[in-house]
Amino acid sequence: MTAAAPTTLSRPGGLWVAFSNNRLSWVGLVLLAAIVLIAIFAPLIAPHDPLEQNIVSRLEPPSAEFWLGTDSYGRDVLSRLIYGSRISLVVGFLAILIAMSIGATVGILAGYIGGPFDQLVMGLLDVMLSFPTLLLGLMIAAMLGASLENLIIAIAITEIAPFARIARAPTISLKQRDFVEAGRALGFGPVRIMRVHILPNMISDVVVMGSLWMASAIRTEASLSFIGLGVPPPAATWGGMIREGFENILDAWWLAVFPSLAILLTVLALNLLGDALRDAIDPKLRAE
Amino acid sequence: MIGYAIRRLVLAIPTLFVMLTAIFVLVRLVPGDAASVILGDQASEASLRALRAKLGLDQPIYLQYLSFMGDVLRGNLGQSLSSGRSVIQEVLLVLPYTIELTLAAIAVGVGLGLPLGIAAAVGRNGWIDYAARLVSLIGLSFPAFVSGILMLIVFAIQLGWFPVLNSGDGGLGGGLRSLALPAFNLGIIMMAYVVRVTRASMLGVLSEDYIRTARAKGVRPVRLILRHALRNGLIPIITVIGLYFGTLIGNSVLTEIIFNRPGLGKLIFGALNSRDYTLLQGLMIIFAICVIVVNTLTDLAYGLVDPRVKYKS
Fold first, then answer.
1. Do the beta carbons of residue A203 and residue A119 sit within 8 Å?
2. ipTM given for this complex
3. Are B294 and B245 in contact (CB under 8 A)?
């Protein structure tokens, strides 16, 4: 029983070795770091103002002045792409942070309390899990109205269920361990036991899944922006840029291509990183 | 088996109940209320009141809930505000297109993904394995609309192999051509999932003792893999195909918009744009029912594939 318990960080050295031996994980890490740096230093890197319209030079193909061309308002595509990374990363990160906090809390409570409460919560989560993420996000965003906050809330809600499942399983085995029994015998309250004794032992699993699900959150953000439920214009979002490019696809096909590649690279980087982290904490795979 | 099937169907009822309740709550989460969302900011107080009365929003919440549930149970999902047709009619009008697209996508996804996943597991750490893993990783990273647009640019605009816009009819040839790109778009993303699960599942089965025994007694490789290993490796694969159905529906919304195909996704998009709130609510209910039906069928399919699955009471 003790051997099977999810003490994934009992050998942090092993985790790091497993992670850094995977060449693809480094590709993901470097790629993600580059995208984050671009987002942080967007005002320094962007050659033009992303919102500045120039009717004279609209729908221009890539050139020396506009490296990736201009959109139908004559705005510089490269600058909009650079600023667009901010919204994708902020929405993805905050949505996952919220989903992780709520999901982990629900999962720990369900696992710790057990019984009918656990069954009820898990039943509800199964229902949430079986509803398509994109449709759920679409409905919530449509009902709340398009804005940055609502977008984050909508995506966060769609991602709660997987985190609750990840947090619940280790809680059930942890609550029977001796150190938790000891805490109970010393008279610690359930909140303290859950926070101090159970949460730290599983937080790594939850965080690792977070990096995988952030890829999914960014995909959902881009999809909702494409449908028109994202951060409203004129703000630069990758999904919104693809939507504009799609409307001009016969005249200027490159407009849709560059933001598409940006989304693809970001999601790929997060998937590479998340896969490597998940393989690294899974002892079965590590042994191979 | 029949007893299990009945029990499984009975179990689906509370799930449906929870989903319907969730939809009821979700639709009433609208800031302000649905009437002001539908009519916009400039609506007069009188027209707001009239619409509220029409939608039953002026009644107490528990009465709204009861009449909502009663309507759904009687099969009445309401009327579209923009077309005046019933939601069921609207859905039946486009359902054949969505079924056609979904089946074609599953055929592409499973038809390509299953052999590739098996090949990757059999030639583990070889070049096929690396290629399959790379392909599936890239496939997993594509939002459906991004791959759709890139396909449209390459195959329809640059190469001119397929129509850019779906013209509607044009006989069997035209129909297949306008189905091919959307189906491949959905199918290739699905393939990424199928490859992953097939590879993992087959790797697990291939390392078991009975496979070594079969190999030792001289079972030929093709028969060994297809008959001895795949049969046992199929359960997780079926689960993923079943679970993927929801994602498939979500992705088909985006695909139908891009390839301008009629279907449930296009219907949702239209309902969103015209703020057709009753149609949206009806569509959510229909999706919820579809998801439950597919999940139930997936569970039932286990028994057909693996006779070891015993359905105890």
1. no
2. 0.79
3. yes
Other C-beta atoms closer than 10 Å to the C-beta of B202 total 26
Measured CA to CA in angstroms, residue B6 lies from A157, B11, B296, B303 at distances of 33, 9, 11, 14
Q: Quick one: DSSP state of residue A60?
A: P
Cβ contact, residue pair B149, A246, below 8 Å: yes
Interval A9-59: pLDDT, tens: 444 556 677 677 777 788 888 999 999 999 998 888 878 787 777 777 777
- Which amino acid, residue A83? Y
In chain B, residues with a C-beta closer than 8 Å to the C-beta of A140 are 26, 29
| Residue B110 CB contacts under 8 Å (≥ 6 apart), including other chains | B190, B194, B241
Interface contacts A/B by beta carbons within 8 Å: 122
Alpha-carbon span A160 to A148, nearest angstrom: 19
* In chain A, where the domains are located: 21-42+74-287
In this structure, which amino acid lies at residue A71?
A: D
How crowded is the C-beta side of A278, counted as CA atoms within 13 Å?
Answer: 13
In the block, which residue shows the tokens 């098996």? B118
**Which residues of chain A neighbour B37 with C-beta distances below 8 Å?**
145
Interhelix angle B171-206/B127-141, rounded to 10 degrees, is 120
Length of chain B: 313
CA quadruple A99, A213, A240, A223: dihedral sign:
negative
> What's the whole-model pTM score?
0.83
A164 neighbors A107 (Cβ within 8 angstroms): yes
Q: In which element (H, E) is residue B108 found?
A: helix B87-122
| CATH class of the region A21-42+74-287 | mainly alpha
